[in-house]
Amino acid sequence: AVRGRLWGRRVTPLVTALRDGRLATHIRHCPPIRLATCSQAGPSRARTSASMKYGKYIESKRRPEWSDHYIDYKGLKDLVKAQAQEAGTGETSFSPRTTSLTIQRINNKKDSAEERFFAKLEQDVDKVSKFTEHLVDKLRADLNKLQSKVVNIESENQATKDVLIKEAQRIGDDFLQLEKYVNLNYMGFHKILKKHDKAIPAAPCRQFYVAHLHQQPWVQGNYSDLLVSLSNVYSKLRGDSSGTKNDDAAQGFVRSTTKYWVRNEDVSTVKHHVLQHLPVFQHDTNNFTGDAQLINSVYLDNASAELYHGRLDKKPGAIALRIRWYGSQPPSIAFIERKTHRESWKGEESVKERFILPDDKVVPFLDGEYSLDNALADMDAQAAKKGKSVKEDEKEKFIELFTEVFNAVDAKQLRPMVRTQYMRTAFQIPFDSTVRISLDTNMCMIKENPEDGPTCAATGRWYRDPELPIHRTEITRFPHAILEVKLSLKEGQTAPTWVQELLDSGYLTEVHKFSKFIHGTATLFPDMVRAVPYWVDDESVRPSMVASAPLPQEAAAVRPVAEEPAPSGTLLPKPRVHRPGKATPEMEELTHPLLGDEPTLKLMPDPDQVRGFGSPVTRRAAAAGEPSWLMKALGLVPRKLTTTTLMKIEPKTFFANERTFLAWLHMAITVSSIAAALLGFASGGTPDKQDAAITRHLVELIALLLLPLGVFMVVYALYVFTWRADNIAKKKAHHVDDRVGPLWLCGLVTVCLSAIFVICCIDFYEVMHQPDAPPHGP
């Protein structure tokens, strides 16, 4: 919002409610342009080069067979120029509220550049809309034909399956091309409207027309059902078999999880790759539309943010407690979940455990009024309705987990603190958790207790009242999608090769131990936290955090309120809501209390460094991603890792790097000093011309061997120091020790000393075979 971005361009119920000052409890699926992937930034923007104008860019990226169906950017640009010339000689935009039918205006003509511009703009919007609808209908028809072919695929041979797999890949690739087409035109309309307002500031139209653009079918449509259908086709071609559903009251999950950031414009490409190997998991087919499901998670913490700091420091046994529900409707049941951190270097895995409570029992549970006996009685009654009985082992697990969570809530005085809300697309063979991939989009974090209204405890609720307005400082929208790779592998079992292909594609950026709870708490409660995660310094995350920062006058006004809290349950006056689309001068001066003046991290790679799946690597990408010959020679090339564990970076790590650098310099200076002294000593002597060449230049030869060695040590030490310091600063997940460089240096020292030994032996031999030669001077 600070930089003029229109957060929440898609008019989903959530975004509409936020603009109206209300919190929605549901989100509709997003438009087609990202294979129905939800994102708060609207259709993904085309990747334009900084040095290339958009007119040339759109010409270079358009498909030849679709050339007649793109936005006429050049024609609209010419009309903007003509309109600017007409506006320069005409009257200003000011006019009274009344008019006269007999007063003639300056430049009063029917076919003005302004009329032609808006007519052509509307014509191009309609052209893109109709062509998009035509392509989607064609893809639906092709997909229906493919589905009819795979009905009895079990009886077909492998050759037939391979042909059908290629056809499914072709449909998926065509859908990605359609997304690129829509994004290219979408960005073109934004660019030309921005150019119009810049050229004709007296008659701005961008803000109004962008809102009109958002209502177009090709922007607001939801075609995620195509993804689900394509996923079902792949599942039948693979012959996937479902696992067994776990209906236990207490459930536990032990698995390794790695989290990645994904650019919004790459979400569809990642989805298409994953669904070729894993089906889209539909938790509830009756209430599941599209490929994603809304998830709300209310995290608990206390006034000192104890759970936040425990999870941030990765203390052994640190827990996170949350209450989660699924779907767009108000919750009827809630999942009480506890995540426990374990040290991976000890061979332990983090654990997620949960049990189920009815919605009306959550508040009594948090207040300590819903005891274990009540929970067991309700569990037995629920099982009796189904004609079943609760197993003893299941009851023991439930008792243990319920008691531990109940005691933690009571002892730590935990209350609802922050909510995470997002659309999740899960890829998994039903009820088989061996390999599970989830993709979270449209992610936002919200304060569960309003700043100027009654808290959840005052209203007797465990989640925020949807009717209460949301201030700008009570919500933050994360700019990227979050992909999680969750593996539950047996000992000796390795991850599938397609997972490694996904990791090597360049579309994913690993962010070690990223946490939605930690990010939301650090962004929305800067006065409560004593430490922040490292990723807040990333340049791509800063704008979203700054957008939630309080204005200077708001921060000053909040301090007295903190000293004298209002009575419980009173409704304070609502502050003015700053909408994201309006970048006022005050908004432009926003600074988040936890951020410095400039970002210090760049975790996301440049778009031109993305390798893709099976596509040839460009020269620029190869130059950026391929290690240099010096790194290969010194053994500084990172190894391929299936699971990455990043070391904990502390200040002493940087000091250790400096000490190593100084140790190499000490050795290099010693060798260089010896060589320089020998050269100085040799220049003062006058050896006999009758001596052999080696004898006459013995000292110079030794010095010329040692001096380059000292220079090489200095260069090596400086190179390794800068390389290691860069990796430590970026927290890259590969080793920072040099395993080859010291061996090279030892080898060079050995060669130099051996050469000096051979030269001295030759010199000694020559001296011994010249008995009549006069003795050498001192």
From TrEMBL:
It is a multi-pass membrane protein. The keyword Transmembrane helix applies. CDD domains: PolyPPase_VTC4_like (cd07751), SPX (cd14447). The keyword Coiled coil applies. The chain crosses the membrane at residues 661-681, 701-722, 743-765. Its main location: membrane. Keywords: Coiled coil, Membrane, Transmembrane, Transmembrane helix, Vacuole. Residues 559-584 are annotated as: Disordered. It is found in: Vacuole membrane. GO terms for biological process: polyphosphate biosynthetic process. Pfam families: DUF202 (PF02656), SPX (PF03105), VTC (PF09359). GO terms for cellular component: vacuolar membrane. InterPro entries: DUF202, SPX_dom, VTC_Complex_Subunit, VTC_domain, VTC_sf. Residues 129-163 form a coiled coil. This is SPX domain-containing protein. It comes from Chlamydomonas euryale.
